[in-house]
Every structure is written in structure tokens, then in C-alpha cells.
């Protein structure tokens, strides 16, 4: 899935609907929309509303384990993202192989492949994520990234 537009709910979070509802985006669309915004923020002189969409998509209890093995909390990640605006001009992020691993109550566990592309340089990682949903909106609770060797 490549770059594409996204729909927004009035509160700034992706209005993703449910994977079972016809005409509404499913989990691959939710993952692609977040990464499209991430690539736009990191790879262009994006307006602040793109950052607002990214921060609005993260649960208040969000944490991430990045490819170096370090765990970061929501505020640390957002602080780093804020200062990384347009630091990778031309960045595209392709998402593939989105699979639902488990679902229980309002939690969904996903696994997918994300590939960062800047010019000829491609960096792949396998990502496991937990999303929290109320059936209409989806918030990222935690992400664990593992680098995929070339």
C-alpha cells in the first residue's frame, strides 16, 4: 500500500469503522493511513495538522520498542517526531502483509511489514502492534519493531 489520503474523524483520529462494515476501511487501511502520515511528516515540510493526526492516533498509554531495542513512551516518541519533521526528504513508507493475530474485547494485535524508502535505500522491519478500539476509532497502544536483515 502506498501513499494515499485519509479520512479524519472530528476529533482528529482516523475514523476507521470496522473491518466487517462494507465501505469502511479495514485494518490494512488503518495501518497504511498512519504510516502515510508518518512518511509525510518525516519526508516533507508537512503542516502541523499532520503531526496532530499522528499524536491523536496514539493512546495516552502508548509505548514502543524500536529496532535498537529501546523502549520509549508516548511523550518521548512525539518529542522526537516533532523535531524530525522533513529530516528524510522524499521518504515513503510501504506497508504490507497486515495480519490480525488476536482480538479480545477492545484490543487487536496486528503484525505487518513496513518498509521505509528514501531514494534507493530501503529499510524493512516487522512490526507487532496492539490497537485499542471502541469499534469506530482505533488508537495505537504499543508497537514493537524488529529489523529485517537484508
Verbal overview:
- By secondary structure, this protein is of the alpha+beta class.
- It has one domain: Roll (Nuclear Transport Factor 2, Chain: A).
- The chain is 24% helix and 39% strand.
- The chain contains 3 helices and 6 strands, in the order ααββαββββ.
- It has a 6-stranded mixed beta sheet.
- Helix 1 (27-43) runs antiparallel to helix 2.
- The longest helix is centred in the first third of the chain and has 17 residues, at 27-43.
- The protein is globular and about 40 Å long.
- The two termini are 21 Å apart.
- 25% of the residues are buried.
- The model is unreliable at 1-24 (pLDDT under 50).
How much helix, percentage-wise, in residues?
Answer: 10-25%
The parts where pLDDT drops under 50 for at least 5 residues are: 1-24
Supply the helix-strand structural class: alpha+beta
Distance between the termini: 21 Å
Which term fits the overall shape? globular
Number of domains: 1
CATH hierarchy, class:
Alpha Beta
Secondary-structure element order, N to C? HHEEHEEEE
Q: Helix count?
A: 3
Task: Predict the CATH topology.
Answer: Nuclear Transport Factor 2, Chain: A
The biggest beta sheet is recorded as:
6 strands, mixed
Strand order of the largest sheet: 2-1-6-5-4-3
What proportion of the residues form beta strands (DSSP E)? 35-45%
Quantity of strands, as a count: 6
CATH architectural grouping = Roll
Radius of gyration: 14 Å
